[in-house]
Design a protein that fits this description.
Helix content: 55-70%
Strand content: under 5%
Number of strands: 6
Number of helices: 43
Distance between the termini: 28 Å
Strand order of the largest sheet: 4-5-3-2-1-6
Largest sheet: 6 strands, mixed
């Protein structure tokens, strides 16, 4: 997404702005520098900060030293946490080079780490005065980068700085590495991850093995491709094993994966370089919070703020990580602490806005998000939220005592009542089952555009694999209008997400991801055997190949799966872990574990305590449980995979050795179907369906058998096959369409209504299920069902609105108290077809009755409003 056209927000910079835009400042490429300086900078890049400090200190005695040596010394001292020395050297450097912007920026930074914000502000003001009085002619791209960094601090529009400083420096004949890093970092700060990745990749072409650029590239991949992120992390640490930003990024990833002990190891490595590193200590505070060790968390936070007491980045980081663990109230409190230090600190303002929206505090959240966007037009997340807010203002709101549902107006009319009904059933079932009392209504947002769902959830488009997301008291889901590769059952999705509300409440938002997802998938299957993930051939192969993840590492399986199948398997394995614990130790044990989590206990300790079994033994028993599930799938069936590499002779021998191989027989059946040899395909498919029919949709022999029976005109057999198949399918549109058709032919109206309801749960945005329900209701005398269905059918702009209006008018005429609406409907029918005799006669019948007082018969149902 692109921000709106930037403007200069600081009026006194306008002359300088024109100089930049018109090319009034000229920048000459600097020389490569002395060999000694190159060696010292190489030491710094490779993590030998002590060596870089020693070399720089030796050079400072030379009266002809370059500013690069002083800057290198200050940066090395800052990296090592030697803040007093860094401050002294930065100040001394200004005595020799008073007009150097880069040194003055370092003087500002070191003043902050002396707990002297007044001096830091004075240094920035000195830069402003310097540039106002005498805009310099810079001699190198590094100077141009320093100018840009100063302008950002002074409030100049980031896009103008990007284009006229950083990117201009990149285009010099000998561009400095700092130019690519500055571009990439600014893009990261503004969540423009594509530009960030492009900048760092371009920099790595010219400066290979640069740890700063590899780390930046890893950050650019963090929200989209964890596998690529880890590869860049590996490259950065290969270049510099002591690279603190990379060590912190790896720790961040490990915290996300709930590998807390491993995260501590990375933080220890960073703190070995700089014992006072504020971000590393902030991460330790996060880990203490996740252990519910409040005292230690406070101590680590105090340590992080020791040298820079009003550093907003510390609380921002703590709050961001807590929010990523669904502890939004604590996260929001941390952002407010950051803003007490620096009220205009953009990252904390943006994060607080998102936290408030996740907590259901929409008025304050949206207002803050809009303010952030107004102040920073380049911030991609803030821009996306602003656009989304404008879109959501058009949504309709449906409410009852326990839910607030936001969805598009058209979709609200088509299935909003079904959404409220489904959610109410989920609440009644799951809250009672888990002993949870919800003290506030649950907000549910259903987005017809996947990009809007992604922006509301992640701050930007992308992450197409998600159907729904729960963030505490707010659930979000893609609607059936979203063009996904495979349609999903929206009832299943909403049940799954609401289960998260229940379990997060039960644990006070303190539960590992694997357990949270596992319970939700487990409860899908409990609610409807056709819902949720189940063992299939792909999962069986993964289990038999040893792809099962130990429970202690299972949350990490969600972060960087090699493909979508492995991601779905993570959900399935998590649900099996819950199934295993319930079967082995009882449902009450699961509830006690959730209670322990809410009390602050670590999950592995709770599992061991409540099951009286050590975690390694639990993992061993669980692995055996899953292996049994895999072995029992199609037990006795030859499921040996077809050879990949084979010549004709070898394959012929293989076929002789595997005459009843499932895949071989499926191949033969499909070949016969492709040749329209239905009589040959039928017996093969019957045998296959009896052997194994656990796959979904078109991969199931039951479906292929039904297709074959249809071509053989075996209607009754086809209906029996499809009915059997429907017991295990929840989102196969073609299946329900055909069952509705067959049931309608046989006038089996209860079956028509049943399968129309199943189709509505997949796609309520097509006419067929509504028309089927209307016809079934009319045929069985269920006028309320028929009237509701015809009303919804009209919202879909049917090809025959004349008949729909007429049928609706007939039903309303027959129902007491609905004459006025019946009159309106028949008049609409006659408006399009004035000579429609049946409608004319119906109008005469209606007019023969006296007029009724005006009522709104259509207003029954959930409360609705804009």
């Amino acid at each position: 997404m692109h921000a709106r056209n930037p403007i200069w927000r600081v009026s006194w910079w306008l002359p300088l702005a024109w100089l930049l835009v018109l090319g009034g400042l000229f920048f000459l490429p600097g020389n490569a520098g002395a060999q000694a300086l190159d060696e010292a900078q190489k030491q710094f890049s490779q993590g030998d900060y002590g060596g870089a400090i020693t070399n720089a200190q030796k050079r400072l005695g030379d009266s002809s030293y370059r500013t690069d040596w002083r800057e290198l010394l200050v940066k090395s001292l800052l990296m090592a946490g030697r803040y007093d020395e860094a401050y002294t050297n930065a100040t001394a450097g200004l005595n020799d080079y008073s007009a150097n912007v880069g040194l003055r920026l370092l003087a500002r930074e070191t003043a902050l780490y002396q707990n002297n914000p007044a001096e830091a502000n004075r240094r920035l003001d000195e830069i402003r005065i310097l540039l106002e009085q005498r805009p310099p002619t810079y001699q190198s791209g590094a100077d141009l980068v320093a100018l840009g960094q100063a302008l950002l601090l002074l409030g100049v529009e980031p896009r103008l700085v990007l284009e006229n400083c950083f990117q201009r420096a990149e285009k010099l004949a000998s561009p400095p590495r700092e130019a690519f890093i500055a571009t990439g970092q600014l893009a990261l700060d503004k969540h423009d991850f594509k530009l960030a990745a492009d900048a760092f990749r371009a920099g790595l072409v010219k400066f290979t093995d640069d740890p700063d650029m590899e780390c930046g590239l890893a950050q650019a991949y963090e929200n989209s491709d964890r596998t690529e992120m880890l590869l860049s992390i590996e490259a950065a640490l290969a270049a510099n094993p002591k690279h603190i930003p990379t060590l912190l990024l790896l720790a961040d990833h490990l915290i996300d994966a709930e590998q807390y002990a491993e995260a501590e190891k990375q933080l220890a490595l960073a703190l070995a370089v700089n014992p006072h590193q504020p971000e590393a200590l902030a991460y330790r505070a996060v880990l203490a919070d996740l252990r519910n060790d409040t005292n230690q968390s406070r101590q680590f936070r105090a340590d992080a703020l020791k040298f820079y007491k009003r550093n907003p980045a510390v609380d921002h980081l703590i709050g961001r990580k807590l929010s990523e663990k669904y502890r939004f109230a604590e996260g929001a409190a941390a952002q407010r602490r950051a803003l007490e230090f620096e009220p205009e600190y953009g990252p904390a303002r943006r994060q607080l806005a998102e936290d408030l929206l996740r907590l259901g505090q929409d008025d304050e959240g949206w207002a803050l998000a809009e303010a952030v966007h107004k102040d920073d037009a380049y911030d991609v997340t803030a821009y996306n939220l602003s656009v989304l807010h404008d879109q959501m203002m058009k949504y309709q709101t449906l409410t009852n005592a326990n839910f607030i549902v936001h969805m598009s107006t058209n979709e609200a009319g088509l299935y909003g009542d079904l959404v409220l009904d489904l959610l109410s059933r989920a609440r009644e079932t799951l809250c009672k089952k888990y002993g949870v009392e919800l003290k506030q209504p649950t907000a549910v947002e259903i987005f017809p555009e996947q990009k809007d769902f992604a922006v509301r959830t992640f701050g930007m488009p992308g992450n197409p694999g998600y159907l729904g997301v729960c963030i505490g008291p707010v659930n979000k889901a893609n609607s059936p209008a979203t063009p996904l590769p495979n349609p999903a059952n929206w009832e299943d999705v909403l049940w799954h997400e609401f289960c998260h509300v229940v379990t997060l409440t039960a644990t006070k938002n303190r539960m590992p991801r694997w357990l949270s997802e596992g319970i939700s998938v487990y409860e899908e299957r409990q609610a409807n055997p056709a819902w949720g993930e189940k063992m299939n051939l792909a999962y069986r192969d993964m289990v038999l190949k040893g792809d099962l993840t130990p429970l202690g590492e299972l949350s990490g399986a969600f972060l960087s799966p090699s493909n979508s199948v492995h991601l779905q398997f993570a959900y399935y394995e998590s649900s099996l872990a819950v199934d295993f614990m319930v079967q082995k130790f009882g449902f009450d044990t699961l509830k006690k574990i959730l209670g322990d989590l809410g009390d602050g206990e670590e999950v592995n300790k709770s599992i061991a305590k409540r099951t009286a079994t050590a975690l390694p033994e639990i993992e061993k028993q669980f692995a055996a449980f899953v292996r049994t599930q895999a072995d029992q799938l199609a037990s006795g069936v030859d499921l040996a995979p077809l050879p990949n590499q084979r010549d004709e002779t070898e394959f012929a021998a293989w076929k002789l050795a595997h005459p009843k191989n499932f895949y071989l027989q499926m191949q033969a059946a499909v070949k016969a179907m492709d040749a329209t040899n239905w009589a040959e395909a039928e017996p093969l498919l019957k045998t296959l369906a009896e052997t194994y029919h656990g796959e979904s949709k078109g991969d199931n022999p039951l479906w292929l058998l039904a297709v074959t029976q249809r071509h053989l005109n075996q209607t009754n057999a086809e209906l029996a096959t499809l009915t059997k198949f429907a017991r295990q399918e929840s989102d196969f549109v073609d299946l329900y369409v055909r069952l509705i058709e067959l049931a309608g032919i046989q006038k089996d109206w209860p079956a028509v209504a049943k399968y129309a309801g199943r189709l509505l749960a997949v796609n309520p945005l097509i006419s067929l299920p509504h028309r089927a329900l209307a016809e079934a209701g009319a045929a069985t005398g269920d006028s309320n069902q028929a009237i509701t269905a015809y009303r919804k059918l009209l919202l879909l702009d049917p090809p025959d609105p004349v008949d729909v209006h007429y049928q609706l008018a007939k039903l309303l005429h027959a129902r007491a108290g609905s004459e006025n609406e019946a009159r309106r409907q028949v008049l609409q029918s006659l408006e399009d077809a004035p000579r429609y005799r049946d409608a004319q006669r119906l109008l005469l019948e209606i007019n023969a009755k006296p007029l009724q007082p005006s009522t709104n018969a259509a207003a029954s149902g959930p409360k609705a409003g804009k």
